[in-house]
């Protein structure tokens, strides 16, 4: 499967083959678009976090949009960005992401605010605005 792999350092590494001929590239591009199209409809998963939830889905869509210069998923990304609010709780005028169990407030990267902040910054840099 073509995609990204999380390493211990928390960095994303592209695992595409070193050499790809044009026909293989067309097949890979088609498969990648099919995968991205299938996840764009998951706008309200159980979790809002980066590794297992909505922020991770948004991340994947933004990466696709950025790499392929394809803005066809911008509307879905904006909808998902707006849906992030439903995974948060307001404590003293600060929004905190609730983890996937809906029992704990979390500020970590994988399941908390740091992952959300990263995705929101990426959306802004990709010029995908939300309301």
Describe the structure.
The structure is a single chain. The chain is an alpha+beta fold and 131 residues long. The chain has 4 helices and 5 strands. It has helices at 22-39, 54-68, 74-83, 113-125, and strands at 4-6, 12-14, 88-91, 94-98, 105-106. The strands form 2 sheets. It has a 3-stranded antiparallel beta sheet with strand order 3-4-5, with no helix packed on it. Helix 2 runs parallel beside helix 4. The protein is elongated. The protein starts with a strand and ends in a 6-residue tail after the last helix. Mean pLDDT is 78; it is low at 1-15.
Task: Describe, in short, the structure shown.
The chain is an alpha+beta fold and 131 residues long.
Q: Average pLDDT across residues?
A: 78
Query: What letter string, H or E per element, gives the SSE order?
Result: EEHHHEEEH
Question: Rg to the nearest angstrom?
Answer: 16 Å
Estimated helix fraction: 40-55%
Tell me the distance between the termini. 34 Å
Quaternary status: single chain
